[in-house]
Amino acid sequence: QVQLVESGGGLVQAGGSLTLSCAASGRTFSNLAMGWFRQAPGSERGFVAAISSSGVSAYYADSVKGRFTISRDNAKSTVYLQLNNLKPEDTAVYYCAAGSTIYSIRDYWGQGTQVTVSS
């Protein structure tokens, strides 16, 4: 079983930045692909970004390309999501996710962290 704990959410003005962190435990972190999803009120949970277990490959939703960056530190068993140039439409609960491969990153979920962007 994999435990994921997110942190770093908060309230920020449009154009601002935040860094989300997700600490993983329970399995060898370097064997896990990691990802971030988000869910706004009244909407389904949607893909934001993912990173391969080695960190070599990263993938992004079109809506966040060029503004968000996913990275990982395997020594710290932590994945990060840098959010830049935030927009009000980025307001959502952000969830960390993990799996054995990029195609199975929905296997494990964190509890979520709220990001609110004011206009």
What does this structure look like?
By secondary structure, this protein is mainly β. The chain is built from no helices and eleven strands. Strands 2, 4, 5, 6, 9, 10 and 11 form a seven-stranded mixed beta sheet that branches. A four-stranded antiparallel beta sheet has the order 1-3-8-7, with no helix packed on it. It is globular.
In short:
It is built from no helices and eleven strands. By secondary structure, the protein is mostly beta strands.
List the topology elements.
Elements lengths: L2 E5 L2 E4 L4 E8 L7 E7 L6 E6 L6 E3 L7 E6 L4 E6 L8 E8 L8 E2 L3 E6 L1
Parallel strand pairs: 2-11
Antiparallel strand pairs: 1-3, 3-8, 4-5, 4-9, 5-6, 7-8, 9-10, 9-11
Low-pLDDT residue spans? none
Radius of gyration: 13 Å
Q: Judging from the principal axes of the Cα atoms, what is the shape?
A: globular
CA-to-CA gap between the ends? 40 Å
Mean of pLDDT: 96
Q: What proportion of the residues form beta strands (DSSP E)?
A: over 45%
Task: Count the beta strands.
Answer: 11
Number of helical segments with 4 or more residues: 0
The computed structural class is mainly beta
**Share of helical residues:** under 10%
What string gives the helices and strands in order?
EEEEEEEEEEE
Q: Main β-sheet: number of strands, strand sense, barrel status?
A: 7 strands, mixed
